[in-house]
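The records we work with from here on pair a chain with its fold. These numbers are not coordinates but entries in a learned vocabulary of local backbone shapes. To see the layout at work, look at the sequence and tokens printed below:
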Amino acid sequence: MALLDDNRLLPHDVAGRSLARRLYDSVKEAPIISPHGHVDPAWFAKDEAFSNPTELFITPDHYVLRMLVSQGISLDQLGIKRKDVSARDTAVNPRAIWHIFAAHYHLFRATPSRMWLDHVFETLFELDGVLCAANADDYYDRISECLTQDAFRPRALFDRFNIEAIATTESALDPLASHRALALSDWDGRVITTYRPDAIINPNGADTGAFAMAIEALGEITGLPTTTWDGYLDAHRDRRAFFRSFGATATDHGHPTAFTAVLDQADAAALFDKALHGRIGLQEAEQFRGHMLVEMARMSCEDGMVMQLHAGSNRNHAAGIFENFGTDMGFDIPMRTDFVNGLKPLLTEMGHHPGLRLILFTLDETTLSRELAPLAGAYPSVLLGPAWWFFDSPDGMRRYRDLTTETAGFYNTTGFNDDTRAFCSIPARHDVSRRVDAAYLASLVLSGRLNEQDAAEVAQDLAYGLAKKAYKL
């Protein structure tokens, strides 16, 4: 029994399906631009075989983890390593974890994860029949056998997936060893990095001494006096240049809110000194982060790096999970944020600067039509990132188009990015996006708001061209 309906996500009516099918067929084989994601660059640098199905499908995928945890399965049961090495269970059995996953596969019914997983199982591993407890070993053995073959190593899959470029995301303090190894290799796959400076911008983390330690590490890496305000800013410029030397075209900022502030340099320096000495309050930390977004935008105007802002996420909501297992365990929860007032200081100064390109992401859909589409439809520096995380689903993607197109059009958006740690899901995610967009464009044609030739051009841009242009790839 095939896992996938070949016409999934396309319209039900004959005319709509026929038109959407033509549009989808015109883009389904387009190269993949993956401009923002979190796959491990070491996979491509080392090109070693993936160890087992559990490490490929379960461990790196916070969508999978959060659903299983929501049903009472612990991260320990799923083999997730604790931060405290002495508390780790060294007897983890990946096949046993796979059995847990298979026995609970019904939890994913009607979720985007189920569609992505079924896509990979059928198209990559030629499996049929829905995964369940009864066939868990058959699945595990088939995938394991495939992973021993050279055709399933990371670089071969990169080529098989027709990926033209993929951007990983690294901390500003990362030595980029894997990217250096890639640069020295004879492989021509384009894997670039992205500058993520949160650790050296956010002085209000769970560990009050973490910021000072990060700034000390920044000084050691750059050789600059990072405990001074001017030295700190110069160190950012130094690291940005280092990241660009390994292909980076963008920065990425995961801030709680979209708040920005333009401070006098003396006031910013005073807040920085407070942060270094652990004396900064919550409101002062927000002021500092807000000013640093402005400083990052100023640097983007200088060096041309695209700036991404992911705001409106209450990160690491489960304190115990964060303390024991760290970040990215599925406990980043959407929350409200004010883009209009929050971004006004930054946009007042640089919203019309030809060197700034600011891509905005939200987890609060109510802001799309009320705030983000109008901002992108007015400021030449602002672009809308695609539906992100909780909304990178067929329904979320369709709502995104409904809420933004009439105000921002298509060309103030950035196409699609998959934002994933689960490597094999990349083509599945892009396929979902291309199908949803084809269906949406078909509806515009059939309602007389777009002609078919324009729709075909837009389909190509949404699948490929807009991401390539937005991220300067």
Q: What stands out?
A: The radius of gyration is 23 Å. Residues 200 and 353 are 26 Å apart (CA to CA). The first strand starts at residue 32 and ends at 34. The domain at 50-152 is CATH 1.10.2020.10 (uronate isomerase, domain 2, chain A).
